[in-house]
Amino acid sequence: MLEKLKKLEKQANLGLKSCNSVPDLEEWKIKFLGRKSELSLILKDIKNIDVSLKKEVGMLGNKLRIELEALYNDHLERLEPSKKEQNSSLDHFLPGREVKVGKLHPVTQTLREIKKAFSSLGFQVAEGPEIEWDKYNFDMLNIPEDHPARDMWDTMWIDEKMNSNGEKMLLRTHTSPVQARIMESQDPPIRVIVPGKCYRYEATDATHEWHFYQVEGLAVDKNLTFADLKGTLYEFAKKIFGNDTKIRFRCDYFPFVEPGVDMSIFWEGKWLEILGAGMVHPKVFEKAGYTDPNISGFAFGMGPERIAMIKHNIDDIRLFYSNDLRFLNQF
Ligand code: FA5
pTM for this one? Predict the structure, then answer.
């Protein structure tokens, strides 16, 4: 029986060489692999052969069948390449699937523009935690526990988190705590911007979200003045909105600056506030451990969503986070 299988293998290989067309090959297949082929009969009759040979004949027979099937497929591919593909389930005429390319969110695009504008003015980029200790969010910024200014930032407190000193954790209400963190760990000169997310427990409307981005700015050096603050912010506004933009500074109050201002841009017939700013308050320097009397600095905190609204003529801030692709795909 084993001899017979070896002979069959030789015959099949020889026979394949003279298959020069698909019909020849189909005939070869019937002869060597068909239901009535010698190989199929041997495999079918395996239960009747001597036990001592059964295993070897079975193994060799199946191996030969697999080999011949592979030879058939290869030969078919050589004779008529498309024939094999026709036998497969691949449909080359199906239209392709459109590849969807993602794009950057309009607020991310604006954040990148802001970073680029300040990089060109010599500012570095830093980050800080969104979950913050009340010490950094308030105390280090000259906003003590009983200070009325705490009401300005309705806060989302994190109940469970409290350290051994009784300090609590919160979702930061602004990016200003990173000012305190930077001054605590670095000596002047400092020129840094801090982009990041903020959270406030407040009702939303067309210009207010309960979660939004801010970009904080801090410059500390010897003899910095209010003129440096104004010059920097004017230059920034020109880079972002163009030379003809109307800009307005008004007095404002933030406990961590003195004097304090807000800056607005004239947009759609009215002034829209985009940032708060001022000269760093001496008490903030004191808390950070800066003692040199010649040190001064300015700080600002702006809302990139408001800036994106002006740039793209968007009349409702809530559109940014409503996940509506009809809106987002426009940028
Ligand atoms: C502050 O948050 C101060 N930390 C800013 C500051 C930094 C002042 C450094 C002085 C020195 P204010 O709450 O005004 O200030 O927010 C600053 C900017 O964040 C606003 O001008 C506005 O552009 C944006 N902003 C504030 N609240 C919201 C809100 N609910 N939704 C969207 N943007 C907001």
Answer: 0.73
Residue owning the nearest CA to atom 33 of ligand 1: 303
Q: In the chain, where does the domain assigned CATH 3.30.930.10 lie?
A: 106-328
**Cβ–Cβ under 8 Å, residues 181 and 129:** no
Residue 189: cis peptide before it, omega within 30 degrees of 0: yes
The CATH superfamily assigned to 106-328 is Bira Bifunctional Protein; Domain 2 (3.30.930.10)
d(CA 23, CA 30): 11
Q: How far is the CA of 302 from the centre of ligand 1 (A)?
A: 6
Catalytic residues: 153, 174, 200, 214, 257, 299
- Alpha carbon of 300 to ligand 1 centroid (Å): 9
Report the nearest atom of ligand 1 relative to the CA of 152: 13
pLDDT of residue 150: 81
Segment 112-169, tens digit of pLDDT = 999 999 999 999 999 999 999 999 999 999 998 888 878 777 899 987 667 667 788 9
* Tokens describing residue 99: 């590849």
Q: Decide: 188 in ligand 1 pocket, CB within 6 A.
A: no
